[in-house]
Amino acid sequence: MDGSSESNSRGLNTSEFLPAERIIADRSKSSFSHIGYVRSLLGSSHKEEDSFRVNYDDDSGGVRALKREDVSLRQWLDNPERSVVDAFECFHVFRQIVEIVNAAHSQAVVVHNVRPSCFVMSSFNRVSFIESASCSDSGSDEERPKEAATRRRRKSGEIGGSSKEEFQPFPMKEILAREMRWYTSPEEDTGSPGSYASDVYRLGVLLFERLLQLFCPVSSREEKSRTMSSLRHRVLPPQILLNWPKEASFCLWLLHPEPSYRPSMSELLKSEFINEPRESLEEREAAIELRERIEEQELLLEFLFLIQQRKQETADKLRDTVSLLSSDIDQVLKRQLSLKQKGNDVLSFLISRKRIRQGAEGVPADENEDNTLESSTLLESSRLVRNFKKLESVYFATRYRQIKADKPLARYYSALSSSDGKSSLTQQPSKKDQNDSRQGGWIDPFLEGLCKYLTFSKLRVKADLKQGDLLNSANLVCAIGFDRDGELFATAGVNKKIKIFECESIINDGRDIHYPVVELASRSKLSGICWNSYIKSQIASSNFEGVVQVWDVARGQLVTEMKEHEKRVWSIDISTADPTLLASGSDDGSVKLWSINQGVSIGTIKTKANVCCVQFPSDSGRSLAFGSADHRVYYYDLRNPKLPLCTMIGHTKTVSNVRFVDSSTLVSSSTDNTLKLWDLSMSVSGVNEAPVHSFMGHTNLKNFVGLSVSDGYLATGSETNEIYVYHKAFPMPVLSYKFENIDPVSGLQVEDASQFISSVCWRGQSSTLVAANSTGNIKILEMV
């Protein structure tokens, strides 16, 4: 077939179709070639849009988009996995194709492409006609073997299983070439143009393929190729002629070599062969339609059941949550009642004294008390409402952690109660005491955190430390530290000086300029300082050249100098439990332990990344924590320095500071904008990937902004030139304070986005802290 037919045979005009006619839209209206779709159906890796062609849907009376589950009629015929072939199904498909061709002929259109590759079937055997394919645009012979194999694998997967060796589907180009030969009528072979009779001949070939599939299945594609080629000479397999003479006779009528002897479409539709199974086919269509509707209902049911399941899960969780809250409310009410009963006499005594004192001062006792209570309640309510969601999440996290921890204890008590022997039973707590203890165990820590969170309302500046060298550009303060009694604090930074100030003097004296009581000069920029908790006048420092120095503040002299690090030392710490032990962390990837008395290192921990911070716990000199540029926090037992006791994983950038909150809890800061609180007892196989809290609110992406801990409060700087204070119990800030940028010459406030808080330090366990920023501006602040 040369494809050179009249214009009315190139496509079908759907604008004239009745809704019931199953005809494809005009070929000229489609922007995609048929070959692209055929390739996608046969497993080729063409663009997705080629598999979503617009075609006529015989149900709806309109056009529809082809679905992914649609298959070409060629695939359906050549499917090697079809062990059972339904005769009614085959005749139903054939009848639909006959009706499509008849609709075209009724508009005086020759279809030409009445071939399996030009039809697709839905999962319910609904047939749609697609545009013609030609062998010329089917791809080159030099297809890569890998792509061909991939298509075969994909096709095999679409069909529903692994392919069989004895029958492989034809390659895509070969399919089209063979179909063109098989489905070309005798008159077209001689050069005559295609006609209505040619379409009838093609219907005969299509019917024969169905009969071959039904009654004489072939075992290989070579055998099928020989059988289909013999059809040109009107040679049918003997099995079909002997066993199915009626079907064979009808097929030969359509395949008559003379076009004038072939039936017209009207004769074809009136024939007994087409109409005999009509009732059965209509019943089958009705059954298929019913099955479609049932499956649609099942889909809806599945969707509704899924919603019901999820909502039920939500309802169950909500019911459990309400039950937990009710239990906790009962527990708190019991405690409150118990406390009221115990303190009734003391409370009465205090109230009577307060009334007497207020009466003497001329202030009505009840009015003053009510005003104070109302003001406090409004303040606390405002802060509670503002952070209600976060407080709620912390409450539930605390409760669920406790419930999880209580399960092993409950099993332990259960085992005790089931054991024999009165002596053991008399020693264990009663069941009521066990339940009360377990249920109420969360109250004290949560209440303590909540009270501390609500205790203070703001940070107030107590004093500005005004120095005489504010015009010096090298004023970045890298470290601040208080001595053991909180009387003196030291600052150190890029100006190569350690300055010692008396805290009370700065707070109480309203001087224009404050001078340090002692000033120690170093040869290099300073990165860290640490006071000795035992020797009041001893302070250690680290610098950018990798040198660790110990100073005597009272005499203003350098006591010892240790030079074993190869690169900059970022951090140092002197053990509180063993004041002769000092640790340092460096860019050379090592942590060194020093004996201050000997002036030499007594141990080294090697790591694969820069060490940015080190810290001893307050109650032990045998363990150490440090943060690294590999985003991790390591906790070591110094008696076994080869492997960490615990590795804390959770930060996404460099860990710049670590501080112990207590002996089993530490907090780390990182340039990933977070602080993280770690419980050392929660490590599993030496690894902890679940921080208790992640504190967020401040900004820290590239600079070291300091970190300090006091009585559960965590102070850190921010690259927005602000100080943030958190409490260990809650992940949101308690307080914040922004440094004003005052020009030292004009005294006016100016904006400078480059300024950031560089160091913070609490004054012991008090509510006072000292903070410095990148310009050397130092403030003493207090929580009030």
TrEMBL record:
The keyword Isomerase does not apply. It is found in: Nucleus. One of its GO terms (cellular component) is nucleus. Residues 134-165, 419-440 are annotated as: Disordered. Residues 141-150 have a biased composition (Basic and acidic residues). WD repeats lie at residues 562-604, 648-681. Transmembrane segments: none annotated. InterPro entries: Kinase-like_dom_sf, Prot_kinase_dom, SPA1/2/3/4, WD40/YVTN_repeat-like_dom_sf, WD40_PAC1, WD40_repeat_CS, WD40_repeat_dom_sf, WD40_rpt. One of its GO terms (molecular function) is ATP binding. Keywords: Coiled coil, Nucleus, Phytochrome signaling pathway, Repeat, Transferase, Ubl conjugation pathway, WD repeat. Residues 1-274 form the Protein kinase domain. It comes from the Eukaryota. One of its GO terms (biological process) is photomorphogenesis. Gene3D superfamilies: Transferase(Phosphotransferase) domain 1, YVTN repeat-like/Quinoprotein amine dehydrogenase. PANTHER family: PROTEIN SPA1-RELATED 2 (PTHR44218), PROTEIN SPA1-RELATED 4 (PTHR44218:SF17). This is Protein SPA1-RELATED 4 isoform X1. The gene is LOC108862081.
